[in-house]
Amino acid sequence: MMASPDSPASSVSSGGSYKRSPDPNRPQTLEDLVNHFVSSKRSLNTQTVLWRANDIVTSARELLEENAILAAKNSSIRNIVDEQVDALEAVRRGIDVVEAEVQVEFKQLLHDLDSSYAGLQSTLAVLRDTPIEAVLQPPGTPQKHLFDFIDNATVTNLKDSLRACIDRYNEARATLGDGTDNYDTALENLHSSIDNIPNTPTTTSNPSPIPTLYHDLENHAKEAAQAFQSLVRHYDLCVTALRHTEGGSAAATQATGDAPEPSGDDFSAPPEPMTEEERQEMLGVLRNDADEVEDVVSEIRERGSEMTFLLSQIENHIAHLRNEDAALANVLKMIVHVTVEVKSVIATSRSFHASWLDDTRPNLLSGIEEWENQREFYERFDLAYAELLVEISSRRRRHEKAKRKAEEAQRELDRLRAEDDRAREQFTLTQGDFLPLDIWPGLRDPPRRYEVRTVGYERDPEGEGEKDHGEEQTDAVVQSIPQLERNVVERALTRVKRRM
C-alpha cells in the first residue's frame, strides 16, 4: 500500500514489489510533480471498479440468501421425493406380491385340475375300450361299450364351465397387467426425471461453495477499497505538493483542464504553512508512492476482474440450484400424476384378487372335486361291470347246480311214483276183488304225479322286483343265464382283485 501523507516512507503494496525511480536522489521538478498529479488523477478512474464491486457484493449477498433458501428447499423436496417414490415402489411391490401369490396357487390348482381331468379321461378311455359282452345283449344289437351307458354331457358341461372360469381369470389378469404396465411406465418416467435432475454437488463434506465465494468477494472488495483509498491519499498528496511548489497550481490546472477535482484540490486556496524539511519529506513520500500507482491500479482492476469471475461462479451455482428446483417441481407434478394412477391400479388389483377369491379359486377347487368324484364313480362303474361278469359266472354255476339238483329230484320223484304205481297195482290184484269201489272213491286213482320245473316271472318296470306266477302262467318270462367264456371271467376277476 502507498504511504500516508505524514508517513516518513512508503510501505510495500500487497500486490508485490514496485518499480523504483532510477535516481531516487534526484530533486523533484515541477514537471515531475505535474506528471505525478496527472497519473494519480487518472488512477482515480478505478472508482468505476469500486462501483461495480459494490454492485457485485450486493448481488452476491442476494444470491447468498437465495442459495440458503434453494438449498434448504431442494434438500427438503428431495427427501419428500424419496419418501414418495419409496411409497409408490412399495405399492408396486405389494401388487406384485398379490399377483405372484395368486399366480402360484392358480398354477398349482390348474396342475391339480389337469391331473384330475387326465385321470378322468384315462378312466373314460377304459370305458371306451371295454366292450359289453355280446351274450348280455339282445340278438342283433350293435356292439356297445361301457362308455355308451354314461352321461357324457356332464363332463362336457363341466369342462366348458371351467374353461370359461379360466378365461375370466386370464381376462382379469390381463386387465391387471395393463394397469401395472401403465403404472410401470409412469414409474420409469418418474425415475428417469429424477435421474435427470441436476445434481448439485453439495454434501456434508462438500458444502455449498457460495459462502466461501462470497467471503472471497468481500475480501477483494475490501482490499480494492483500501487500495483506492491509497490512490486518493496519493492524489491529495500530489495536490498538496503542487500547492507548496511555485507555479504548481497553474501547471496542474493547465495539465488537467477545467475538469472538476475529486477532492480538496482547490489550488486557489492558500496552502497551509510547511517547513522546507517537511516539504522535502513529503516529496520523498510522493516519489515513492508514484512508483506504486500503476501497480495499485492493476491490483484494483485485477481484484475487480476476480470479483466478476467469482460472481459468475456464484451465479452458475445459483442457476444450477434454480434448475434443480424447477426439475424437482416437475417431479412433484409427476408424482401427483402417478399418485392418481395408484388409485386405479390398486382398485384393479383388488378386483383381480376378489375375482380370484370369489370366482376362480372356488370354481377350480369345485372342478377338481367334481373330476375326482366322476373319475371315482366311473371307476366304480368299470369295477361294477367286472363284478357283474363275475356275478354272472357265479349265477351260472349256481344255476347249473340247481338244475342238476332239480334233475336228481325229478328222477327221485319219478322213481317214487313208479314204486307207488307198482304198489297200488299189487294191492289191487290182491285185495281188489274184495273191496267195493264205493268204499273209497280214490281207491282206483293213479298215483299223484310231481314235476320239478322252472317257474317263470314277470319283470316289474317299476323296479320293485319280480312277480312269481308259479304254475298259473306258463307263458311268463324265463331268462336263461348267459354262459361266459372262461377267459372273460378270469379277466374280470383279475380286475376286481386288482382294485380291491
From TrEMBL:
Coiled-coil parts of chain: 389-426
Pfam families: ATG17_like (PF04108)
Domain of life according to the entry: Eukaryota
Keywords from the UniProt entry: Autophagy, Coiled coil, Cytoplasm, Membrane
Biased composition (Low complexity): 1-17
InterPro entries from the UniProt entry: Atg17, ATG17-like_dom
Region span, Disordered: 1-28, 249-275, 455-475
UniProt function note: Autophagy-specific protein that functions in response to autophagy-inducing signals as a scaffold to recruit other ATG proteins to organize preautophagosomal structure (PAS) formation. Modulates the timing and magnitude of the autophagy response, such as the size of the sequestering vesicles. Plays particularly a role in pexophagy and nucleophagy.
Entry protein name: Autophagy-related protein 17
Organism the protein comes from: Pleomassaria siparia CBS 279.74
